[in-house]
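We modelled the chain as a single entity of 380 amino acids. Its sequence is:
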Amino acid sequence: MFRRLTIMAFCLLFLSAALTGCATTRETTTPEKASAEPAFTPFHDIVDMAFVKQHVSIPLSQDVMLIDARPYKPKYIKGHIPMAVSIPDSQFDKMTDKLPANKDALLIFYCGGLKCKLSHKSAIKAEKLGYTNVKVFAEGYPQWISDKSNYPAVSAEWIKAQIDKGADMVLVDSRPKRKKYDKGHIPTAISIPDMQFDDLKNQLPAEKSKLVVFYCGGLHCKLSHKSAAKAIAMGYTNVKVFAEGYPAWVAYAGKPTTNVAAATAIKAGEEEGSIDHAEFKRLVNDSPEAILLVDVRDADEYKKGSLKTAVNIPIDDLEEKIKTLPADKPVVFICGTGARSGEAFYMVQDVRPELKNVFYVDGEMTIKKDGSFTLKKLPM
């Protein structure tokens, strides 16, 4: 109880004082600034990781829903709390059909940590819809993966991208070999049925830091989770689970995937659509007018400090304004963690796929009132 009260007090203090602020009044001649909006109020019911662990089960109870409020791309697909459903806050009003019919069901929202307000905004919206048991795991995904006994879940899109680029990954099918694996499995996967894990664990890589991803038969299947826990107990430090498993792969694998190629000399980052951190700093410092910087955080955050040449188009307003983005100038989206900026990048691909000179900053960006900033890579 003391820990929960402490977390709540810290979260309320931090969020009300300095939620990834963003503000200057300077703007370019392209998209207009968003209108002012009321100051953000954090959600009133905060829970800690012990509470989340208590309610995360495989399969998840019908009376519990764990909801990731971060953008589906690029955040959710490459790492989320197992069993969490993706309902990005920017898409909340369009995805309310994913919420349970039972208004008394436990809803736990989370996002990118104490600096992220997406989960708070979604929780407030859920209460307005009549849900009576709504919580926010304010420490969110960063706190989840900071516990070495935990592992993240990934999605089919992420698995496909790793296979396509030949990533140094060991993909493990935890289902029975004859009944399941031999009848169909994900390309490159090896068979280590969970029931035979101890006998076949020598097939795992000798290097304990190598990426190992387990999957089985979907969200009701425990085998991959059991095998992942065993691998962690053996000392493997980069373990993930494709919780939706082989059924999701079959549903997705036939869909074409595209890698958007940059039509400029801008150096790309590691993630699709991202800009290299050193390249971004160089452009901001030496050639700020060569790119259009778009801050997609909310107006109240923007006002507290942003890059001097950045314009503000909150992610909730971006879709209808994508048509105003220039085709003759690189566009770089920024936010506080790479979540909303990454969502902006993928939104542009959906609405204006012909617009190639588009990037986003993937990382934790802290911006001061004078426009100076620090940028660091976030943990996977």
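As a brief sanity check on the tokenised model: The first strand starts at residue 46 and ends at 47. The radius of gyration is 21 Å.
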